[in-house]
Specification:
single chain, mainly alpha
């Protein structure tokens, strides 16, 4: 029984680690989204600038802005997928933690029964009687 409990506790730890890893990936993705938005804002500011060389770079800035928008959309989709994955992993972790808790409780009850049986058997042995 304790071997099974140890195994399920290892599974719980692995699932916690996987959930944390996915949360880190999502945090990095959010940071990248913020960087893309800042780059877009800078490009828009440059497009709105009325400097002397403004007309020379409008086409390339517009293409760059379009690519940034596509990248941002791809990051948003990946973020949604990661959010769903985090929810799934959290639910899986909760079920496994519940299973580990139940197994620990059962193992404790089994140990208590065994201890009680030994105590009763020892008491009966003193009187010269045996329960078995």
């Amino acid at each position: 029984m304790s071997d099974r409990l140890k195994k399920i506790e290892r599974v719980v730890e692995v699932q916690r680690h996987l959930k944390r890893l996915t949360e880190w990936k999502l945090a990095i993705l959010r940071r990248d989204e913020i960087g893309l938005r800042k780059a877009q804002e800078q490009l828009i500011d440059h497009l709105n600038d009325q400097s002397l060389h403004h007309g020379l770079f409008v086409g390339s800035m517009a293409r760059r802005l379009s690519r940034l928008a596509q990248e941002e959309e791809a990051l948003r989709e990946t973020g949604k997928e990661l959010q769903e994955r985090i929810i799934d992993e959290a639910m899986r972790l909760k079920r496994t933690e519940r299973l580990a808790h139940n197994m620990a409780r059962d193992a404790e009850a089994h140990d208590e029964r065994s201890s009680l049986e030994r105590i009763v058997e020892a008491g009966a042995a003193k009187k010269g009687e045996s329960l078995a």
